Amino acid sequence: MGRLAFNSGLRGFRLIDAVTDVHARGIEGFKRFVRSPPFLGIEALAQLGALHVRFVTGFDKHAFLLILKHFSKASGPPLNGCCRLTGRLVGRGDSAFSYHLEAVAKKGPRIEGEFVFATMEYDRVFRREILAEHYREVFSCLRNGSGKGC
Predict the structure, then answer these.
(1) CB-based contact 100:87 (threshold 8 Å)
(2) Distance in angstroms (rounded) separating the CA atoms of residues 25 and 34
């Protein structure tokens, strides 16, 4: 079995620092930004939503962002400091999940939008034996709040 490694090309890059609460209808977490462009806030929200989809499907499906229907901010001053990330599941079907996601900083822009995620069965490209365990480990690490080893 191979190990899956992601390399963003950015030193020390993580999109979410912790998941602080999760339940069937929503998820919360936070991310500390350091002079980051606002589009990274949108990306962090997409990661938060996809984690929730994986959680509610028991990590049994491959999840991905299908469409960002609207969002409030993609440019402007850099994100700096801790942002509270929240996601609320507003609707779902057999393989599609709609969320209202937002990032709120003490200072700086508030980013929010409607994100739609889709799921699919694992296959030869998106292999269950690698991805399901990887996302379980990432989720567990983010839930324990340490942010270490992720």
Answers:
(1) yes
(2) 30
Task: Tell me the pLDDT tens digit for each residue of 49-69.
Answer: 999 999 999 998 989 999 998
Distance CA 3, CA 50 (A): 21
Has residue 12 been placed in a domain? no
Provide the number of structural domains found in the chain: 1
For residue 143, with 0-12 CB atoms within 10 Å meaning exposed, 13-18 middle and 19 or more buried, which class applies?
middle
Q: 66: domain CATH number?
A: 3.10.129.10
Query: Among 69, 81, 12, which residue's Cα sits nearest to residue 41?
Result: 81
Question: Which residues, other chains included, contact 13 with Cβ-Cβ below 8 Å and sequence gap of 6+?
Answer: none
- Arithmetic mean of pLDDT, 73-101: 89
Q: Provide the residue range defining the domain that includes 94.
A: 18-140
